[in-house]
């Protein structure tokens, strides 16, 4: 989002009058909750430096008041516009049911079932994944739409096997790969990590203008597929 704001301000000729600051719990730029992906740290640090965007890592927020945010180290940041995403937690339904861990995440086996309740499946954001490594500020593993789609297909197959008979597919969440097309203002980056968690069999990270066009094309394809209910199509 901050790259998109930077790009818009430059198009308006107002970037030189508008300081930007990025606050993150990550230990470094490009960590992504995945321990980095290839050269992601270098790429992100170079992008922030070239675009003159200030970054504060390993940061937590103590208080947000009108026009100002206070960080855990005593830093105060004035702002005219800000957006902060609070730490993720599970939904109340899972927390109150006792099926998840204290944070409200479902811990599933390699079939996406709850080990103690094998008629209950979990996929996507509801699934808990252990962090890749300890960090000064706890940093969770992201669950992207691409990962969620892969989990859902596997769970659907296994649910059908429960009902109709047949063999299940075992594919632990830690082995699922991720493909991400990330907007970066006037360009975008392609990130492929298979599996998402290290050590990885394949890693691709490219920042190219064509990736932005590819994302626009995929968005139109995906939305059309959803409107038609053509879930059998790839992607």
From TrEMBL:
Residue ranges that the Swiss-Prot or TrEMBL entry lists as coiled coil: none
InterPro entries cross-referenced by the UniProt entry: FAD/NAD-bd_sf (IPR036188), SQRD (IPR052541)
Gene3D superfamilies per record: 3.50.50.100
Protein name: Sulfide:quinone oxidoreductase
Organism expressing this protein natively: Desulfotruncus arcticus DSM 17038
């Amino acid at each position: 989002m901050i790259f998109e704001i930077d790009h818009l301000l430059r198009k308006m000729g107002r970037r030189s009058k508008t300081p930007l600051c990025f606050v993150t719990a990550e230990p470094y730029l490009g960590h992504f909750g995945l321990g980095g992906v290839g050269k992601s740290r270098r790429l992100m640090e170079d992008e922030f430096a070239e675009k003159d965007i200030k970054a504060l890592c390993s940061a937590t927020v103590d208080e947000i008041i009108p026009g100002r945010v206070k960080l855990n180290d005593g830093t105060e940041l004035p702002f005219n516009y800000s957006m902060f995403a609070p730490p993720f937690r599970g939904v109340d339904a899972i927390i109150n049911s006792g099926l998840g861990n204290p944070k409200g995440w479902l811990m599933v086996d390699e079939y996406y079932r709850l080990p103690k309740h094998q008629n209950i499946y979990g996929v996507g954001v509801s699934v808990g994944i252990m962090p890749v490594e300890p960090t000064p500020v706890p940093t969770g593993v992201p669950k992207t739409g691409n990962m969620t789609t892969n989990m859902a297909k596997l769970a659907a197959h296994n649910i059908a096997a429960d009902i109709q008979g047949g063999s299940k597919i075992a594919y632990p969440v830690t082995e699922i790969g991720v493909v991400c097309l990330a907007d970066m203002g006037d360009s975008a980056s392609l990130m492929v990590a298979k599996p998402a968690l290290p050590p990885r069999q394949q890693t691709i990270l490219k920042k190219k203008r064509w990736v932005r066009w590819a994302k626009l094309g995929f968005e139109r394809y995906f939305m059309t597929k959803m409107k038609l209910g053509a879930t059998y199509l790839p992607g």
